[in-house]
Every structure is written in structure tokens, then in C-alpha cells.
Write a structure and sequence with these properties.
By secondary structure, this protein is of the alpha/beta class. The protein is built from 18 helices and 27 strands. The strands form 6 sheets. A 7-stranded mixed sheet has the order 2-6-5-3-4-9-8, sandwiched between helices. Strands 20-21-24-25-26-19-27 form a 7-stranded antiparallel sheet. It has a 5-stranded mixed sheet with strand order 11-10-12-13-14, with helices on both faces. The mean pLDDT is 96. The structure holds 1-O-phosphono-alpha-D-glucopyranose and zinc ion.
Length: 560
């Protein structure tokens, strides 16, 4: 097999966002566009590149197969020693992380635009994960981006044709050097890991029912994303869940036209079915399997902020943590602070990091973090270095099996012990970039005014006093690196918060995210609707950013 060097031109804008490079499929299909970015990833590996082993796989969306083919040829030509590729190019994001760690590879290339829609007219994405299994940190993604700005050529071995549909090892010789492509089962290693972590026998008893307890009925919705194949193996084969309880479990290139994002808006089918009351629990996952949504009987919604806090409170039930101990907790900055309260009570260290899973990695590698979460339906632990949807669902089931309570009872007990952090997020998707920038500039100007601190802001009969306000920056406690401009924060004296951020995962336009949180310790409030409790604060937030005025929108596109 011979290697050729292809002349290329620079494409603007190949800067990875919160989670990799995400663009419309049509953008990736431009001549050399994908190749440029893949070459930049490999070049950025530097000394590690020659003879390296990399994992390759994606969420099954449109263009994954073409991208895998290109990666195989470019990797071969660049001296990579071995690629481990999921069958049909399919691997969930948590599975890639699992494989990188298990086979101690130099990293992996994940082909996904996560929860963004798929298909020829929708989105694609490429993300690099490092040898710890986690998303590349800023210094690596910046280096990749710099390389894309000056790239002149890339190397490829155009004659390589590997059938990725069959599990098989291919031994090739490229330019005189050995090059191996191992097409593996997409699910095996991940299932093995889950079985090490959780008490499968007791989860199985819960799901099958026993003489002392009726069957715990679950409904799983994979939204036609990658988790379908994992769900069928783990829940179907291993745990005996019947087919009718697993829906949309065929991964489709366009996710069946669905928006594969597990929230109340996009997983409405699941929510509506569970609302009928036959199921004890509903769960949904996103396109690449790292996000999850958990609901209880009659669609009792567990906010991600609460979900991670409840897991934190009961983590010692899970066999994995009985072995490793609980090293620390963390959440992303906009995520409600419910887990902080658990940490304080249990005297466990708790960290706040910027938005994006990559910020948890260093803490985990340093042995200071066991469990973490983001309000954006991300929950996970140090078993890998990605958030993990199926892991979260199994963690809940393991805890339910042990506590023998409903999800609603578990939540209510939790609030009695710790109080309740009411949380909501408003998304204004696809705004004009200028409009979104005006909102951010408006807030930033106001909060920078020295007199802003101490200001009383009111809405209806509620008055909030500003304690602190800033543009959030974070210093990584492990390597000292600093991430600035991570979101505008208005922190009130009573602990309530308003946060404004622009999304870093969109493929076009701008999405404003508005996060609003307040804490209540009065049990009479616990059953109230979050929107009702947070209404005054939301009103203040909308006014402060002049959101209606600048965006022309009367309402957000998604409320969670
Ligand atoms: C969003 C979420 C963030 C998550 C990321 C990747 O990023 O807000 O928590 O880590 O997707 O799943 P954003 O679009 O806000 O930059
Ligand atoms: Zn995802």
C-alpha cells in the first residue's frame, strides 16, 4: 500500500467548541475538509503518532462510515500502528472512552454531533479524546485548531479498502510498515465494564420482580441513537427486559428525523407514555449515548441537578464505589448546587468547573473525583472520562433496587434531608449571532459596573440582592491552567443564581442559555413547580439581558 501526499487549502473555522468540531454534514463533505481536520488531529499527536493505537467510532449518524474510511487511510499514511474500530463504525462516546482506557491507546476519534439532528441536511462532528479517555483539553484542541490554519497537505493511503461491517483483524503493510485495523464488536467491552461496576443480579431481580416485590416496569427510549445496540444487549439480553419496553433502539443515520436529545421537549413520546402511569421509570439517551434523562412514575421529572445529587447521596450502594471509595464530587458551573449540599454533609470534596466534560478529567486522573454531572443531562463517574447515559440509568436502578423505594419517594426524602435546589434552563436556539452578542454585552456591561453589587432587583413581590457578579473563570487545581469567559454570573445574597452563556456546540447561529437557580429549605415549597418558584428570577434575568428586545423572541425554544 502506498502513501500519497495531497495538496489542500485551509478552511476557516475548524475550531473545536465545547465538545469537538461540529458543523453541517455539507460542510464536512467539502473537498478535503474532513481530511484537513483529521490530519491536524494526528499531527498534534507529535512524538506519540508513529506506531500509536487509536480507537475510532461514532454514533451511527449520516457520514460516519465515510469519515471512518477517510480516517483509516489517513492514519495508515501517517504511521499510526493500529486502529481499533467499532463494527459499522459504531461506538457510543462512553464506549470509546472505555476502549481507550482498557487498551491503553494514545487516544480516540469520536464521530458524533451528540444530540444534534443527523442526516444529509443535518449535523456531523469529530472529536479527539486523549489517552486518559477524555475529551481533549483546551491546549490540545487549540493546537489542533492552529494546525488547521496553516495546513498545506495531508497524507493518505488511497488504496486501502476495509470492510467495516465484519468483525475481523486486517494486517496491512503501508509504506513498508505494519498497519493493523481491528474491527471489533461495538458493545462487548462496555458491557463487561458495566457488569464490573454494578450489581447486575439485584438489578435483574428488580426488573423481573420477585415474591416480595412486583416487577419494576421501565421504558427505555434510545431516540434512534447509538445506545440502541447497548440497550438491547444490556437491558434485553443481560437483564431480561422485554422488547416492548425498549423503543427506538435501531440506530438510524437520521435518528428517524428525531432530535436525539433526552429532555422533556425532544423525548416527549417517552414522557407522554410514562405519564399514563403503567411504568415506574422512563429513561432516554442522546445520539452518542453520553446524556440521559430519568423520569419516575407518571413522568415525575428528575432534574439532572437532582439526579447527580441523589446518586452522590447513595453512591456507596454501588459495588464499584465500595471498592474505590468516594474521592470527590463535581458539577459544571451552571449546574444547580444540590450536589454541593451532599458533599458538605458527607464531608467530601466538591468542585465547580466550567461547562464541558473535559474539565472533569484532570480531577479524576488525580484521584480527587468520583462522581460528577452537568445540568445538560450529563452524569458520570471516574469509571471512564466521558459522561455516560447508560451508566446513569444503571446507577439509578442499582440504588432503587437497594432502597426499595420509588423515584419520587427517593427524591422527596432527598429534599427533606438537603432542601431543594430549584433549577431551570431557557434556551434561545438559533438566534442571530449579533443579537446574542448584544444580550451578552448588555449583561456584561451591567455587571461590570462597580455599583451593581448590592443592587436590589425585584420582580412581583420578590426582591433579590446582588452579592457577586462576574464573567466566570476557572483555574484547574491540578495543572493550573486557566479558562476565562466561561459565563456571566449574577450571584444573589440568598444563594440564588442567574447565569448567561452562549452555547459552544451549535453548528450555526448562536444559542443563548439562561440558567436560573434558587434554593428552598421550606418543605412546603418542595412539591411546587420549578417554573412557578423561579418565575420572579426568570423575569429579572430576561429584563437584565433585554432578551425579548434584542432577540425578538417572546419565549425560549426549549425550557428544561
Ligand atoms: C452543551 C452543554 C454542556 C455539555 C455539552 C456537550 O454545551 O451545555 O453542558 O457538556 O453540550 O454535551 P453548550 O452547547 O452549552 O456549549
Ligand atoms: Zn452526547
Amino acid at each position: 500500500m502506498s502513501v500519497v501526499e495531497i495538496q489542500t487549502k485551509v478552511y476557516e473555522g475548524q475550531k473545536p467548541g465545547t465538545s469537538g468540531l461540529r458543523k453541517a454534514v455539507k460542510v464536512f463533505q467539502q473537498e478535503h475538509y474532513t481530511e484537513n481536520f483529521v490530519q491536524a488531529i494526528l499531527t498534534a499527536l507529535g512524538d506519540q503518532l508513529t506506531g500509536s493505537t487509536l480507537i475510532v467510532g461514532g454514533d451511527g449518524r449520516y457520514y460516519v462510515k465515510e469519515a471512518v474510511e477517510k480516517i483509516i487511510r489517513i492514519a495508515a499514511a501517517n504511521g499510526v500502528g493500529k486502529l481499533i474500530v467499532g463494527q459499522n463504525g459504531i461506538l457510543s462516546t462512553p464506549a470509546v472512552s472505555t476502549l481507550i482506557r482498557k487498551y491503553k491507546t494514545q487516544g480516540g476519534i469520536v464521530l458524533t454531533a451528540s444530540h444534534n439532528p443527523g442526516g444529509p441536511n443535518a449535523d456531523f462532528g469529530i472529536k479527539f479524546n486523549c489517552d486518559n479517555g477524555g475529551p481533549a483539553p483546551d491546549n490540545v484542541t487549540n493546537q489542533i485548531y492552529e494546525l488547521t490554519k496553516s495546513i498545506k497537505s495531508y497524507k493518505t493511503a488511497p488504496n486501502i479498502n476495509i470492510d467495516i461491517t465484519k468483525i475481523q483483524t486486517h494486517n496491512l503493510v503501508v509504506d513498508g510498515k505494519s498497519f493493523v485495523v481491528d474491527i471489533i464488536d461495538s458493545v462487548d467491552d462496555y458491557v463487561a465494564l458495566m457488569k464490573e461496576i454494578f450489581d447486575f443480579p439485584s438489578i435483574k431481580t428488580l426488573l423481573q420482580g420477585s415474591s416480595s416485590r412486583p416487577k419494576f416496569q421501565i421504558l427505555i427510549d434510545s431516540l434512534h441513537g447509538v445506545t440502541g445496540i447497548y440497550v438491547k444487549r444490556i437491558f434485553g439480553l443481560e437483564l431480561g427486559v422485554d422488547d416492548a419496553s425498549m423503543v427506538h433502539v435501531e440506530p438510524l443515520e437520521d435518528f428517524g428525523g428525531l432530535h436525539p436529545d433526552p429532555n422533556l421537549t425532544y423525548a416527549a413520546d417517552l414522557v407522554n407514555t410514562v405519564r399514563n402511569g403503567t411504568h415506574d421509570m422512563g429513561m432516554a439517551f442522546d445520539g452518542d449515548g453520553d446524556r440521559n434523562m430519568i423520569i419516575g412514575k407518571k413522568a415525575f421529572f428528575v432534574t439532572p441537578t437532582d439526579s447527580v445529587a441523589v446518586l452522590a447521596a447513595h453512591l456507596d450502594i454501588i459495588p464499584y464505589f465500595q471498592k474505590t471509595g468516594i474521592k470527590g464530587y463535581a458539577r459544571s458551573m451552571p449546574t444547580g448546587a444540590a450536589i454541593d449540599r451532599v458533599a458538605a454533609k458527607k464531608k467530601v470534596e466538591c468542585f465547580e468547573v466550567p461547562t464541558g466534560w473535559k474539565y472533569f478529567g484532570n480531577l479524576m486522573d488525580a484521584g480527587r473525583l468520583s462522581l460528577c454531572g452537568e445540568e445538560s443531562f450529563g452524569t458520570g463517574s471516574d469509571h471512564i472520562r466521558e459522561k455516560d447515559g447508560i451508566w446513569a440509568a444503571l446507577a439509578w436502578l442499582n440504588i432503587i433496587a437497594k432502597l426499595n423505594k420509588s423515584i419520587e419517594e427517593i427524591l422527596k426524602d432527598h429534599w427533606i434531608t438537603y432542601g431543594r435546589n430549584f433549577f431551570t434552563r431557557y434556551d434561545y436556539e438559533n438566534c442571530a449571532i449579533e443579537d446574542a452578542s448584544r444580550v451578552m454585552a448588555e449583561v456584561e456591561t451591567k455587571i461590570q459596573d462597580p455599583s451593581f453589587k448590592g443592587t436590589k432587583l425585584s420582580s412581583g413581590n420578590k426582591v433579590y440582592v446582588v452579592g457577586e457578579a462576574d464573567n466566570y473563570s476557572y483555574k484547574d487545581p491540578i495543572d493550573g491552567s486557566v479558562a476565562t469567559k466561561q459565563g456571566l454570573r449574577v450571584l444573589f445574597e440568598d444563594g440564588s443564581r442567574i447565569i448567561y452563556r452562549l452555547s459552544g456546540t451549535g453548528s450555526s447561529g448562536a444559542t443563548i442559555r439562561l440558567y436560573v437557580e434558587s434554593y428552598e429549605s421550606d418543605p412546603t415549597t418542595f412539591d411546587k413547580d420549578a417554573q412557578e418558584i423561579l418565575k420572579p428570577l426568570v423575569g429579572i434575568a430576561l429584563d437584565l439581558g433585554k432578551i425579548k428586545e434584542f432577540t425578538g423572541r417572546n419565549a425560549p425554544t426549549v425550557i428544561t
